[in-house]
Amino acid sequence: MTFDEALAAAEHAVDLSGSDPARALALARTLLASLPASCPGTTGPTGDPDDGGAVADRSPGCRHCEAEAVAHRALAVAARELGDLPFAEERLHRAVEIALRAGLPHRAAQARLSLVHIRTELGHPEQALAIAADAEPGLTPAELGKLGVHRAMALARLGRYREAVAHCDRAVAVLGDDVRFLAGAMLNRGLARVFLGEFEAAEADLGRCAELARGAGLTHVLALAEGNLPFLAARRGDLPAAFTAYRRAQDILLDYPERLATVRCDLAEALVTAHLPGEARALLNMAVPELAAAGAGVALAEARLLLARVELRTGDPRRARESAELAAHELAAQGRAVLAPLADEILLRARLALDPSSAKLPATVPEMLACAEALDATGHLNTSAALRLSAAEVALRLGDRPSTDGQLALLSRSGRGLVARQATALRRFLAGDRRGAFAAVLAGLAEVGSETKAFEDPMVRAHAARAGEPLAGFGLALAMRTGRGRTVLAWAERWRAVTGGAGRPLAPCLAALRAALGESALVEFVRHEAELVAVAVTRDRVTLRRLGPFATVAEAVVRLRYGLRRAHLLDGRAPEPGAEAAELERLLFRPLGDRLGDRPLVIVPTGTLHILPWPLLPMNSDRPVSVAASAAAWLAGREVPAVRDGRVVAVAGPGLRCSETEARMVGECHPGTERVAARRAEVMAALERADVAHLAAHGMFSPRSPLLSSIDLDDGPLMAYDLLRLRTPPWLVVLSACDAGMAHAPADGAPLGLAGTFLSLGTRCVVASLVPVRDEETLALMTVFHRSLAAGAPPARALATASGKTGVAGFVCFGCGDQPVAPGPGESVIRPARDPA
Predict the structure, then answer these.
(1) DSSP state of 522
(2) Looking at residue 826, what is its pLDDT?
(3) C-alpha dist (Å) from residue 1 to 30, 64, 67
(4) With bands split at pLDDT 50, 70 and 90, how would you rate the model's confidence at 447?
(5) In a 10 Å sphere around its CB, with 0-12 CB exposed, 13-18 middle and 19+ buried, how is residue 251 labelled?
(6) Mean pLDDT across the chain, nearest whole number?
(7) CB under 8 Å to 370, separation ≥6 — which residues?
């Protein structure tokens, strides 16, 4: 191979690195190995071309040296695409050195051009800009366009987004038909525009980048464009799209661990936005080591910063402090003053969390305000506002009213989002204007409701609504100060309406609620800070009672469930659940005295109480009990139209000894019952046309992702997510399966799981278990239940009767269970689904 041929091959390897970096890497290595060990024009000792040693002086304009320099650059660019940044940097330095010694300033400038990108990703954007300035004089006009693409990336890392866009604009004008760099310009400009909040323009750029990359076979650039869509979607608040785009990007980027780590960081940011810090932390714990291994300094510092934030939000201030200190050190070394105040803010909050009563608190307030100033100066206005509010609250604790009033006034005037609403509410409260404080809270909750109503996914909606949790907590605290049960009930219900997707913070009419209750009683449990509170509503009064620490009740629920699960699983000598049930009854109901009597009960739980088998409490042994997400939800259930034509369907899932027998039993109790094959399509279709659906199957509850909870069918699981497609759900659903009534409630008013999904779609009542159940016992319970139901008993009464006669515990009636499905023997509205003929 002649030197001219070697040079052409090296140039080809550079071009190939964009579309096939592995092949380009191999070609460059082969080329370097084929070159003579020493340059014909060498004037001193030289090393092996691949040994990294010193390079001897070369003849000016030497073609051998030129091919060698270009081949090292090809190695570097290919290695960068494959995620090996340190190796790429080393090869580019070598290419520069060879080119300079051989008197090839243009080749040196080309290598420096590529080095701008690498130094930026290694965490040195300031140095990258200096290298770009050195390279500029030696480049052609088209290469200056390429340099502009790389410069834009460094500028974006420094928070100089507008300058980054301008460089990309100029690059696009001179790049001509260089598809690879045009795609890069679109990518970098799109990302800068995301940070600037120009989402439509950003989407257009990323789409154009994907189009160019797809057409040119630049798979990794296409992957980057796809990989940044979750980031764009998260920044514009479209969380479902962020999750969907991430799943697609994850498949595309499996062979690019550093790129995949970056996408994981983007999704983690989306999860933080969605108030899912635990899930974000899990992703970041994977991404940080991957970025460290790749030497991706810039992305690593940002990932550590985000990790510190989620560690703080997940209650781990010590780890948050460690991560924030590392991030602060790396950001300072990279000259990234734009992000440095964010690390300082986390360090301040970690300090407050670790030592909330420190003698240093008076000095902390000025530090917080100084940090807020820095955040304002660097454009982090929302973080600044939240920190100012925290500073005002600390100052209030210290009795420093001038600082408190000053910050609250500043935040109120800003009018920015929920923080401004909360500051206004607190300011009005401190001024003695309680009505005005309530109005500010209500306005803030209305904003949250309006923003979250658009989310069709109830899990996303519930988590997104948690942005309003501090404001709702303040409203509840104001209500508690009134000492009036009806006021506390109203503010608890307003928050549940927001989280439940009603869109507006509306409380139900108390008179309508009382009228609907009749002789029943409703008890709504509410958490006020660390305390549990109960509001009992009967026809003639509303009673407010403080019940003590919520943690005490939560621990008792866990103990009761532990004993009950072991008993149902026949797991050795299980603790007796009766004693724990009696203790819970004492904690939850004794303060209410005789207000409840033997009335049927409607329970509105909070937190851990969502998974308490309420019928197990001694006072409920023969009492109809319904469990609802809110008083308003229970009222709405009563408005569900009556049973249409009494159609009953029964499904027997696989792998259960008694499922077939149970399905036949349902048919015997309700003549004309339609047996439905245990396949997803058939079951979904049957659920659309049924009034009463009985599903006997294995159940599975997914606590981390409740909408992945499922029941087993012959062709796979039927998940809660599948149920979201139902338009006319059954009036009554009986889930005769383990754990099918379990729920996770990220916020009061939004219990997520199989039962919660049916109810959110319009099902009036769901009967399901909160614990594992045994086949024979379940068959016995369900037999009595359905006989009572067919005889005209409402579901809650039928379940109480069945539990009492069989001694089988664990099933609960959710929703509105006080209306009969059938009016009674001889009058049943449950009719054959098909003509018996």
Answers:
(1) E
(2) 44
(3) 12, 11, 11
(4) very high
(5) exposed
(6) 87
(7) none
